[in-house]
Amino acid sequence: MSQPVSDYGLKGVVRDLVSYKSGIVGLAILSLLLVLSIFALIAIPYNEAIRLWRGQESMWIENPRTAAPEWIEVFLGKRLPRTVVLDSRVKQPSSSKASLDIIGADMKKILITYKLKFDYDELPSEFNLLFYSNYTTSSPYLRLLWKKPNGEEIELLRYSLRSPDDRLYISTNNDILTKLLEFYTTKYPVNVSDRVTVLKLLFGKVTPESLSGGDFEVEKGEYVLSLEVTVFSKNDDLDAKLIVYGTVYGIAGTDHLRRPLEIPLLWGTPIALAFGLTASLVTTFLQMLIAVMSGWYGGLVDSVIQRITELYMVIPFLPFLIMISIFYRLDIWVLLMVVIVLSIFGGGIKGTRALVMQLKEYPYIEAARAYGASDFRIILFYIIPKILPPVVPGLISAVPGYVFLEAGLAFLGLGDPFLPTWGKVINEAYSNGALYRGLYYWVLEPAAMLMLTAFAFAFLGFALDKIVNPRLREL
Amino acid sequence: MRERYDMPFKGLVKYILKRAVVLYLTMLAGIYLTILVANMGGKVDEIILADLRTRVWDEVNRNPVYRALSGAERERLVNQIIENEIKRLGLDQPFLVRSIVYLRDSATLNLGRALFMTSDTGSRLVKNIILERLPATVMLFTTVMLINFFVHLLLGLHLSRRHGSLLDKVIVTLAPTSVLPGWFYGIILILVFYTWLHVLPGGGFVDTPPPKDPILYTLSVLKHMILPMASWIISGFFLGVYSSRTFFLIFSTEDYVEASKAKGLPPRLVERRYILRPALPSIVTGFALGLIGSWSGAIITETVFGWPGLGLVAYTAIQNMDTPVILGFTVIYAYLLMLTVLILDMIYGIIDPRIKVQFG
After folding, report:
1. Which strands make up the sheet holding A237-245, listed edge to edge?
2. How many contacts, defined by CB atoms under 8 Å, are there between A and B?
3. ipTM
4. Is A28 an interface residue toward B (CB < 8 Å)?
5. B156, B241 in Cβ contact below 8 A?
6. A116, A311, B54, B125: which sits with the fewest CB atoms below 10 Å from its CB?
7. Domains of chain A from N-terminus onward
8. Using 50, 70 and 90 to split pLDDT, how confident is the model at A1?
9. Residue B180's closest CA among A319, A422, A286?
10. Domain B131-320 has CATH 2.120.10
């Protein structure tokens, strides 16, 4: 055993840490993560984070599903479609609304037009119309007209609203597909590929080849969607929001429920740090305390502690933890406590106990005993300071293990039921087929955060190990 | 001469017997604790009862045979069925009695029937469900563990002889990469080799449909083993080699090693007698701990890869809230752990002369 160093202040340790490259890197990443955590806590308070993450789908209705982050364009060298929202209730140059009373009848015509500039290299992902209407007796009747940049005009649908806040999912509507196919097959009589979709026909350059092959190039330019609405009372009204969903969103993309991933990525940071550090810190110190008591007092205390340690040895940690978290439906902080309880009698005890038994025989301890120092005083002032230095690197190096433990449990679906964490994002990505559908960003973003955290502590741990175990420095 | 040889052996047997008894009692305590925790004061029973009630009602309502029955008659029928089920599941006893019965059953590996799951052969016995999957786990993870163990040991020994070389520096620098667990590397490997390159299967045990030819079948299984094995090998590699190299280096700077070198003993002999021999107990401990780790860490990795081993059984049981299976799983792990610790103790007894002396 190397001579433990006990004359180290915080300043000295930091100065030594900086003298190791891994120490600098570890400290730098850790500070970055701390800044991120503080930012997350301030920008999105706890309850807000839960509300945003657990909210209804309507909260994120204007976001695309499983959209990659915007910066992915840099790698693909293409311009990918952003989401466009046009609302007839909002005055903007690209959407207009006019209404006209029909004289002689209690009816009204409403004309809503949306102008949509589309010059991206890929098709949008979805195309929806959300209606906001009020009517008393008969529901509004509407005609949808689509005008492409090349001048083609197609009637997409004639439609009666089913409810005041009806939604029309244009991209998956079969009637619209039929209408579009009717239009184009009269123009080009070819066998239509079954890979043709509404979105391809709406936004693609339709030629006989593309129609039979199923691959469409995007037709760039200005599209016009017009809604000719007839309402059957002068007091009735109808507004509509057009959402053309893109394939990219924000700095982190979205998941299958349209939620922006930056929320869990940001919020995962304080959770991972708090979980890992607390688990490691408390476990290490309690283990140390138990080992010191076992080594110092010996006798009955020692044998009880030894038996419990053996009991812990045959209790399988992960299965046991999984069992507890299923049966008791734990949130993350209770889980943290269970993890601590399940690890305090773990492997670290034997080594420290042996060290304490060695220290017990040292002359300076005997001297302390001779002048009448209490057990408490000897343990606190003479033994713990002596065994603390070798314990600290282990403490830091153990943090990633706990961070990944939380992530692993979340991956099994046993994470916190409310809070967004990195492991949960990976779990959702996995169970929604991100690995099979090639949605790399969904897995890689939380994975990168986990890796950053793990490496920060691993680097720090290695550097600290070299500082407190000078023998390692020569090796 | 004979006596000198005999005595330590008797001591060894005595020591092993004592350890076996202590460990078995410890394991019983562990299992009882598991039962107590699992039952959470009877709440598991409540869940089962509520579930049973909905299931029986559902079945009776759906069964055309009972359609003619009136409401009251139907309710009586449902209550009758539920009562029979409660008797079948043994839920009518007080908890203390049940817990002792559970303990006796668990200790004799009589793990009862699963609530919902069945084994591939159609059995509902928890023991069959679990033991049937054990070979798959052992095949994958024990293989990986053995590979890791020997690679780390041999490479570590090799590097300890020429530390400071380029390879040594690379290993030392990359050691922190091992903080990422195997399952995590697994996800990354699937992304690279399945999602991106399409060269290896992303999960499962064998191609679907399974090849008829036994050779092709084996090859297909081997192909499915590549990624899960690679994920654990990569995850363990750098830290494993680094620790074993540092470990040997520390042993080789001991004074008695210097002395033996100074005596002019050949390097091979020095290595075998003065470095490896005293390091043996720690190496064996590392081996046993690796073995245990390979079993319990497998739950997440098997779920990632859909590998039909013990871990996936646990995951399926979690999804279905199949209490007996989860309990049985924990019990089997406790048994495996106890056996490992016992074997470890036996090996210690053989290789550590102090134990023979103590019990001689």
Report:
1. A84-87, A237-245, A126-134, A167-169
2. 136
3. 0.85
4. no
5. yes
6. B54
7. 5-55+261-472 (1.10.3720), 81-245 (2.60.120)
8. very low
9. A422
10. no
